[in-house]
Design a protein that fits this description.
The protein is of the alpha/beta class and 478 residues long. The protein has two domains: 168 residues, Alpha-Beta Complex (Aspartate Aminotransferase, domain 1), CATH 3.90.1150.10; 286 residues, Aspartate Aminotransferase, domain 2 (3-Layer(aba) Sandwich), CATH 3.40.640.10. The protein is 35% helix and 16% strand. The chain has 16 helices and 18 strands. The strands form four sheets. The protein has a seven-stranded mixed β-sheet, with helices on both faces. Strands 13, 14, 15, 17 and 18 form a five-stranded antiparallel β-sheet that branches. Strands 1-2-3-16 form a four-stranded mixed β-sheet. Strand 8 and strand 9 form a beta hairpin. The radius of gyration is 23 Å and the shape is globular.
Length: 478
């Protein structure tokens, strides 16, 4: 495609800096350097407009599952384009969205004979998937007579998106504090951040902090206390929102084995609906087996399952909120009763997104994909071991095909870098120069490769990360 228009030729980089406002980016910094402009991609490789190649170290912000330009997903979209790209879901149904809904419900129910999930509400992205779950839980709680003023709780460091409801569930001041005046109040529950937990008495070791922690699971007992106190106030929590197994934007906080099951059991005992945010963790990201979702891996049964990012294999913006027949029935009534769920999106159930999702599920369920993901997970685990040679690596947390590498000033003291030092940003910039792209979360470097990544490419990503740390902090070589 020729992007040139009449008049003097302008480069994409110049046009970007002149007109585009980027998310989660300090634009003053952005305008000081020439941006990388991505032109194409194939598999786990991205290419810029100058022809330079980069390994996609974070699956294009945690979305791309099978690699770029995958022939099966490309083919499904091309075939659908010959029919129709989009039609309204308000008063109309369409073929791909109907088939995808069935596949999602069956995947989420797993091998259970009596299906738990029954309905799918489509939206556009992770934020809206959470917004849908929040609104449904709120109104279901009111209609069931359990509370007139439903109250919610989420994990410390929670990030569930950028719509107002999703932001209200968040507890990252850097992202959320500025909007405090717009939000409703949501309580927070201590997250099991083993590396920096005040109850963990273990001295730092060269291993994932979850494996050598010394505590009495105080975070779990505190959960019992928090839910009990709220119940005694006469208004038990309507819902508990969480990311299962690993919190993404909190800094890739990996949960110790069994923690989530214990805490969600406590929440259920106190009547709270479970809202599982699997926007990042879904579709095999945390487990290279036939289990699609982290909740299944953790043996947790949520009332709402929120999906996005990998839903279409990283091709198109599409989200889904799965819920139960019980919740659905609370919105049934005669037209004049106005029990309808008054919420929607123009591109709900978009056909192109749906066929991409169906093709992605087909790929996920092949024996070849299962085998390659298992190999890639083990390759990642073994490759990450080299990072312990750096005194600036404090913790390495891996769950499935997600890894978070926490940078510190000294691993022996866990002393953190201050945000103004931009440790994570500087390391990622050094990685980009070497042909690996990812994005930091503060001082945590995230690695989340597409499933098509070869063992050689995976090893290269980790080797480049270590080289970048040594360049950024030269004394790391000593």
């Amino acid at each position: 495609m020729n992007f040139r228009k009449d008049g003097p030729m302008k480069t994409p980089a110049r046009l970007d800096q002149q007109y585009v406002w980027h998310p989660f980016t300090q634009m003053r910094d952005w305008l000081r350097t020439k941006p990388i402009v991505i032109a194409s991609g194939k598999g786990a490789v991205l290419r810029d407009t100058k022809g330079k190649e980069y390994l996609d170290g974070n699956s294009s912000i945690w979305t791309n599952l099978h690699g770029h330009a995958h022939p099966k997903i490309n083919g499904a979209i091309k075939k659908q384009l010959k029919k129709i790209a989009h039609s309204s879901a308000l008063g109309l149904a369409n073929e791909p969205a109907s088939f995808l809904a069935e596949r999602l419900v069956k995947a989420a129910n797993g091998e259970k004979k009596a299906g738990h999930f029954a309905k799918v509400f489509y939206s556009d992205d992770g934020s809206t998937a959470l917004e849908v779950a929040l609104k449904l839980a709120y109104e279901f709680t009111r209609r069931s007579g359990r509370s007139k003023q439903p109250k919610f709780i989420s994990l410390e460091g929670a990030y569930h998106g950028d719509t107002v409801g999703a932001v209200s569930l968040g507890h990252i001041d850097l992202f959320h504090k500025a909007y405090k005046g717009l939000l409703f109040s949501a309580d927070k529950l201590q997250a099991p951040y083993c590396y920096r937990c005040p109850f963990n008495k273990a001295k730092p070791e060269r291993a994932d902090a979850r494996t050598y922690r010394k505590c009495n699971s105080e975070c779990t007992s505190q959960a019992e206390k928090v839910f009990s106190v709220q119940k005694k106030k006469g208004n038990p929590y309507a819902g508990f929102a969480f990311e299962p197994l690993m919190q993404g934007a909190a800094g890739m906080i990996a949960q110790p084995s069994g923690w989530l099951k214990q805490v969600t059991d406590i929440a259920k005992e106190h009547g709270a609906l479970l809202i599982a945010d699997e926007v990042m963790t879904g579709f095999g990201r945390t487990d290279p087996s036939k289990t699609h979702f982290a909740c299944q891996q953790a043996k947790v049964q949520p009332d709402f399952l929120c999906l996005a990012k990998g839903l279409t294999g990283g091709y198109l913006p599409m989200a889904a909120t799965l819920t139960t027949q019980r919740v659905f029935d609370a919105f049934l009534g005669e037209y004049h009763e106005f029990k309808t769920f008054f919420h929607g999106h123009s591109y709900t159930g978009n056909q192109l997104g749906a066929v991409a999702g169906l093709a992605s599920l087909d790929l996920l369920e092949t024996e070849k994909s299962l085998r390659e993901r298992a190999v890639l997970q083990q390759t990642m685990r073994e490759a990450l071991l080299i990072l312990w040679t750096s005194p600036y690596v404090g913790d390495v947390r891996q769950v499935g095909l997600v890894a978070g590498i926490e940078l510190v000033k000294d691993w022996r003291t866990r002393k953190p870098f201050e945000l103004k030092e931009q440790a994570g940003i500087r390391v990622c910039q050094a990685m980009a120069k070497r042909g690996v792209l990812t994005r930091p979360i503060g001082s945590v470097i995230a690695l989340m490769p597409p499933y098509c990544t070869t063992p050689k490419q995976m090893k290269r990503m980790v080797a480049v990360l270590l080289e970048a740390i040594e360049e950024t902090f030269p004394q790391a070589k000593s």
